[in-house]
Amino acid sequence: MSISSNLQTAPKSKKESKTAWQVAPNLFTSFRYAWAGIIYAVRTQRNFRIHLGIGLVALFLGVMLHIKAIEAAVVAITISAVLVMELMNTALESVVDLTVGQTYHELAKIAKDCAAGAVLISAMAALLVAGFIYLPPLLVLLNTGIA
Ligand SMILES: Nc1ncnc2c1ncn2[C@@H]1O[C@H](COP(=O)(O)OP(=O)(O)OP(=O)(O)O)[C@@H](O)[C@H]1O
């Protein structure tokens, strides 16, 4: 969204907000905005695309290895956590850039570094979960393949 479009005056709608430029008039529109956020992250954030790709591979591997339903649920939650962290990171980066632009600010650095740290922790936890769930059946597969 360009800066000039941000400066437009608020549209006249029945539902008015004292803080936001506009408010979603219904649930369907809310979903549309949420979907637009996800599409934005896919288009612009390389790390989001990488994590999405790894997540899809992990789900496919889970199906191939016939993991239990509870394990699949844990994998799904873990993948979601990483993607959610990526989205929050993108949102925070945008707000920081909106506030300070291209000028250096120590607080902007702290905010961005902490958000990046949150993504890193969720990704490391995902690796750990993948190790616990996928390694045992993969080792069994490897052993039976060798034997
Ligand atoms: N305005 C700023 N003031 C101070 N430091 C900043 C500022 N903008 C960025 N940085 C520093 O540069 C790093 C990278 O910022 P940037 O906005 O490029 O994030 P990014 O590398 O695109 O993050 P991601 O890879 O998660 O998309 C930040 O983690 C922070 O340390």
Automatic annotation (TrEMBL):
Q: How is the cofactor bound?
A: Mn(2+), Zn(2+), Cd(2+) and Co(2+) support activity to lesser extents.
Chief subcellular location: membrane
How does the protein's chain sit in the membrane according to the entry?
Answer: Multi-pass membrane protein
Q: Where does a divalent metal cation bind?
A: 93
Indicate yes or no for the key word Cell membrane: yes
Highest taxon above the source species: Bacteria
Q: Which residues does the record give as substrate binding sites?
A: 86
Which InterPro entries did the record assign? DAGK (IPR000829), DAGK_sf (IPR036945), UDPK (IPR033717)
Instruction: Tell me the compartments it is located in.
Output: Cell membrane
Q: Give the keywords, sorted.
A: ATP-binding, Cell membrane, Kinase, Lipid biosynthesis, Lipid metabolism, Magnesium, Membrane, Metal-binding, Nucleotide-binding, Phospholipid biosynthesis, Phospholipid metabolism, Transferase, Transmembrane, Transmembrane helix
Cofactors (names): Mg(2+)
Q: Which CDD domains match?
A: UDPK_IM_like (cd14265)
UniProt keyword GTP-binding present? no
Molecular function terms, GO-annotated:
ATP binding; kinase activity; metal ion binding
Q: What is one GO biological process annotated to this record?
A: phospholipid biosynthetic process
Q: Enumerate the Pfam families for this protein.
A: DAGK_prokar
Q: Can you tell me where the transmembrane regions are? A: 48-67, 73-92, 113-135
Enumerate the active-site residues.
86
GO CC terms on record? plasma membrane
List residues binding ATP.
33, 93, 112-113
Family under the similarity heading: Belongs to the bacterial diacylglycerol kinase family.
Q: Which PANTHER family match?
A: DIACYLGLYCEROL KINASE
What is the designated name of this protein?
A: Diacylglycerol kinase family protein
The species is Adonisia turfae CCMR0081
Q: What is the lineage of its organism?
A: Bacteria, Bacillati, Cyanobacteriota, Adonisia, Adonisia turfae
